[in-house]
Design brief:
This protein has eight helices and six strands, in the order ααββαβαβββαααα. It is an alpha+beta fold. It has a six-stranded mixed beta sheet, sandwiched between helices. A hairpin with a 6-residue loop joins strand 5 and strand 6. The radius of gyration is 19 Å and the shape is globular.
């Protein structure tokens, strides 16, 4: 799982652009973040691939008033409204963006799924990203919202830590040190992928979710101190709720600008 999904950055900065908080060039710079210029294909009213700046302007002309993040995983289509063609593409990518307010036939929305290609020799690589546009069902998601996502993530982290300790799979040495460092790391305002205008709670929730994503990545490298099939299965079952809570927190944080209570 990506601690900073491309779709999340597009949602955060796209919403800031739509609301007039940032200029188009600033939004595109933060969304691409070192990639080759992003392209968008399949956009209504446009032939072939177009640049990201033009695409964002086109979305506004189509009546889009906001963007939402989807972070699905097998068995958990988090944020996906349908239809199956869009859902399958988003599930393969592990992420997607869903528009809000688009004036489309039948009330349908649009879904954007990123496809990234890394090319070039090692040490001098670049990433080309193409956002593929799909028809999406107009079905407003039921959350998650910041407050509940914050509580869920804190509870899941507490439970996972306790269970892993009981199973004696937390590990020692380099592994334990890496986990401890991830828990201590509070990041900085300068490396936040969120856009201006996001509520402070979104910053805190994203910060915690990114630390948890780091812990999950460390824990997923091998089976830790688990030595038999039962312990390995128990370890995986312990991490699964934490992974889901982390994805829900990311969805809530990146999409906070559309939450009615976000400014409260």
């Amino acid at each position: 799982m990506l601690d900073v999904p491309r779709s999340g950055v597009l949602v955060a900065w796209g919403n800031a652009l739509i609301s007039g908080r940032v200029a188009p060039d600033d939004a595109v710079t933060r969304i691409t973040h070192g990639d080759e210029p992003h392209r968008v294909t399949g956009l209504p009213g446009e032939d072939g691939e177009v640049g990201l700046s033009l695409a964002l302007g086109r979305l506004r002309s189509l009546g889009v008033t906001g963007l939402r993040l989807a972070l699905p995983a097998p068995g958990d289509p988090l944020g996906l409204p349908g239809p199956p063609t869009f859902n399958d593409a988003a599930l393969d990518a592990g992420e997607a963006v869903v528009t809000v307010g688009a004036d489309r036939p039948g009330g349908h929305q649009l879904g954007l799924v990123p496809e990234g290609l890394v090319y070039g020799p090692e040490g001098d690589q670049a990433t080309r990203v193409v956002w593929r546009v799909y028809e999406a069902t107009d079905r407003p998601p039921a959350g998650p919202f910041l407050a509940e996502a914050d509580r869920e993530l804190a509870a899941a982290l507490k439970d996972a830590t306790a269970e892993l300790m009981k199973l004696d799979v937390a590990g020692t040495g380099a592994r334990a040190g890496a986990v401890a460092a991830a828990l201590r790391d509070r990041g900085s305002d300068t490396d936040s992928p969120l856009a201006p205008g996001c509520p402070p709670r979104a910053v805190r929730v994203l910060e915690q979710a990114r630390r948890v994503a780091t812990i999950l990545e460390i824990a997923g490298r091998d089976h830790g101190a688990a030595v038999n099939a039962y312990e390995m299965s128990a370890r995986a079952a312990t991490l699964a709720p934490l992974e889901r809570a982390c994805r829900r927190a990311l969805v809530a944080a990146f999409g906070a600008a559309l939450e009615p209570s976000a400014a409260e």
